[in-house]
Design brief:
Elements: H1 18-22, H2 29-41, E1 43-47, H3 53-64, E2 80-81, H4 88-94, H5 97-107, E3 111-119, E4 135-137, E5 142-148, E6 159-161, H6 173-176, H7 193-203, E7 208-210, E8 216-221, E9 226-228, E10 240-247, E11 251-253, E12 282-283, E13 286-287, H8 290-297, H9 314-320, H10 322-326, H11 331-342
Antiparallel strand pairs: 1-8, 2-3, 3-10, 4-11, 5-8, 5-10, 6-7, 6-9, 12-13
Helix pairs in contact: 3-4
């Protein structure tokens, strides 16, 4: 009998009903194995399912090599975002049908790739959770797939991750006591790093290093702490590709730039790499109104708008702000000069 999941708003792989969902006879043993590893550890390793992977990897390395600023490879890393737009092989990895099908089965919703990152060297990033960078409502409908384009040893800045950290709560601005809207600078990942480090110490979790072989992929869940250790040997490269995936039927947003209960939500509208089309934000099968999306994002404290929103109605703005009307001020001028910063309502 097919199990009727009472909590469809939780990814199947993280559901309290995991055993019932994945005991369905239609679920293959391979899918069950990967899902179990993800549930237990927050990551799973697979062989990338492309018979021509070696040729694809070498073509990516050759085509992208000169697009990096090698002279400025200093304390940071080199990266190329969304190279799928210019390289057919980057897109080929991101849109692999077997990977997308696997992720869709594991999460219980259709997966779609929204971003690629290509690295020729180690990222050397401190451990972090992707959930602060891009998240979903319902939460946790996001994952990453990191694929090695060559063998990577410990001197070349391999990936590091903290098994089990995906099970922790997702911490956002209210948990670290910072209001993004009123912060003196745009909030970055480093605002969360002391909390993550303290959590690692509190839970006593040890880091694991992924010494990848060419053609291996590591799938990780949205809240898994991961990063890159120091790239010690500069004579070695660390070619890899990260593809980030969302899942259908969600709202997509950036928690570390948002204060939902203070009227500030930074939504994201990404293109589906498979179709090239923008994926619209949804909530329980309903399209989130565009005027709400724009209104919630044009009130960023540190991002003064250059124009009023497309739906801005001067008469409604003056009705909502009678002091502006009484002063005889132009509605649009007031909004651009003061209203956006003061979080003035756009309509009654």
């Amino acid at each position: 009998m097919h199990f009727n999941n009472p909590l469809p708003g939780i990814p199947s792989v993280e559901s309290p009903f995991f055993s019932k969902i994945f005991s369905d006879p239609s679920v293959s043993e391979d899918v069950r194995r990967v899902a179990t590893q993800l549930r237990d550890n927050g990551f799973a390793v697979i062989d990338f399912p492309d018979d021509q992977f070696d040729q694809v990897a070498e073509a990516i390395k050759a085509n992208l090599h000169d697009k990096y600023d090698w002279a400025n490879w200093g304390d940071g890393s080199l990266r190329l975002m969304n190279a799928w737009e210019i390289d057919q092989n980057v897109r080929r990895i991101a849109t692999n049908e077997k990977v997308i099908h696997l992720l869709s089965q594991i999460f219980g919703r259709q997966a779609w790739p929204f971003q690629t990152l290509n690295f020729p060297v180690g990222t050397q990033q401190p451990p972090h959770s992707d959930s602060v960078h891009f998240s979903s409502v319902p939460e946790r409908f996001m994952c990453g797939v990191w694929t090695a384009l060559e063998d990577i040893d410990e001197d070349a800045g391999p990936l590091v991750y903290y098994p089990g950290s995906h099970k922790w709560p997702i911490y956002s601005m209210e948990h670290i006591g910072v209001c993004a809207l009123n912060a003196e600078r745009t909030i970055r990942q480093d605002a969360f790093e002391p909390a993550w480090q303290a959590l690692v110490e509190q839970h006593g979790v040890e880091p694991h290093i992924f010494r990848a072989k060419k053609g291996q992929s590591l799938i990780w869940l949205a809240n898994l702490l991961h990063g890159g250790i120091s790239h010690k040997d500069r004579s070695k490269t660390r070619w890899s590709q990260v593809t980030h995936y969302f899942f259908n039927g969600c709202a997509y947003w950036i928690p570390m730039h948002s204060d939902p209960f203070y009227g500030n939500i930074v939504f994201r509208e990404f293109r589906n790499v498979v179709t090239g089309e923008i994926v619209k934000n949804e909530y329980l099968g309903n399209r989130i109104p565009e005027d709400f999306i724009h209104a919630s994002q044009t009130r960023r404290y540190d991002e003064k708008p250059s124009t009023v929103p497309s739906f801005f109605d001067p008469s409604l703005y003056l009705q909502a702000n009678p002091d502006v009307a009484a002063a005889g001020m132009d509605a649009a001028q007031h909004y651009l000069s003061h209203g956006w910063k003061e979080r003035r309502p756009l309509a009654p």
